[in-house]
UniProtKB/TrEMBL annotation, chains A, B:
Parts of the chain that traverse the membrane: none
SUPFAM superfamilies: Dihydrofolate reductase-like (SSF53597)
Recorded GO MF terms: 5-amino-6-(5-phosphoribosylamino)uracil reductase activity
Every Bacterial bifunctional deaminase-reductase C-terminal domain range: 4-171
InterPro entries: DHFR-like_dom_sf (IPR024072), RibDG_C (IPR002734)
Pfam families found in the cross-reference section: RibD_C
Any one GO BP annotation for this protein: riboflavin biosynthetic process
Name by which UniProt lists this protein: Dihydrofolate reductase
Length: 198, 198
């Protein structure tokens, strides 16, 4: 089966969003603070990062075959305007399917029977050669608790947000041990990639 | 004045202790998982770490001239048995001075008029050439809020504790921006050192 990896930009105090959806100008600053261009699947959106971060992003996008996200992020980004920046199929875990979303031929699938089902469907689409990316917060926590996560990728940002949405939250089954990370030093971000030990 | 630096061993989800003072066997595992000996001021206690971590510890202990800790940590460690491992004077921030603690000639000073006073007293003892170390949690948070911190040193441990005592907690005045860290990769720990941006 595909490798399942959760990932997010996280503040040093463990938040993927500040209070009331604030702090993104800090968490995502590294995606625009360099001079190496990284194109996305959105023609109007090109990232500009340090060379080290560009390499991390290129490797990451080349290895991800499908994504699992929560409804909160989908709504917050307005479904990324119809195309996720990584250009891969997205499985949205939700209690109810939005009625006003055009479903024909677009890469979003709404999954109402839980995150494990979404991961399974995403893995089928991704195939064995590519991994499934799970977004941080509630989705990452649930996958960890279900023993579904193989890796955790943290883009650690040098800022303290003080409060907000935690990357992991109150985790049943903690402590969860991780292996030593691979470390890449960017500008305004430290890329840490951990294997989950079972 | 001395440089003021907060530091702690922290889980990837931001805790310096798990629920009900648990998790220390994970947070401090790196202090005993290597074969390079690092003596402490306690004759019976020698740390054994990776070469990279030993170098970080040696540099750190050589640069610290005094410590500011909270009463909780002092009680938890029973005053480190009378001698802190770094062998430097310790200023304990407390509401009331313990009556059963022998004060003659020992390196602990109890400070009842707040953390700023403790930092000031510690800085006087440390002198300009050495820094003041502030322990994580409540003390670090208060120092950050008072604008007293110059640096934050995090020994980031690859474990998720799920809950417990946060390194920073709910921070007034957030977001607080930090500079890019220096990074040293140990075994079972990633040493990150950040300058606080004002």
């Amino acid at each position: 089966m595909s490798k399942i990896a959760a990932g997010a930009c996280m503040s040093l105090d463990g938040f993927i969003a500040g209070p009331e959806e604030s702090g993104f100008e800090h968490l995502f600053a590294w995606l625009g603070n360099g001079d190496v261009e990284v194109p996305t699947a959105q023609p109007e959106r090109t990232l500009r990062t340090s060379a080290a971060s560009a390499e991390v992003l290129r490797e990451h996008t080349a290895s991800v075959g499908a994504l699992v996200v929560g409804r909160r992020l989908f709504d917050l980004t307005k479904g990324w305007g119809g195309t996720h920046p990584w250009g891969v199929p997205v499985f949205v875990v939700t209690h109810s399917v939005p009625e006003d979303w055009a479903n024909d031929g677009n890469p979003f699938t709404f999954v109402t029977d839980g995150v494990a089902s979404a991961v399974e469907q995403a893995a089928e689409v991704a195939g064995v050669d590519k991994m499934v990316g799970v977004n941080g917060g509630e989705m990452a926590r649930q996958c960890l608790e279900l023993g579904l996560l193989d890796e955790v990728g943290i883009d650690l940002v040098p800022v303290l947000l003080g409060d907000g949405v935690p990357m992991f939250g109150k985790l049943a089954g903690a402590p969860v041990r991780l292996a030593n990370p691979t470390v890449v030093e960017g500008d305004g971000v430290t890329h840490l990639r951990y294997r989950v030990l079972r």
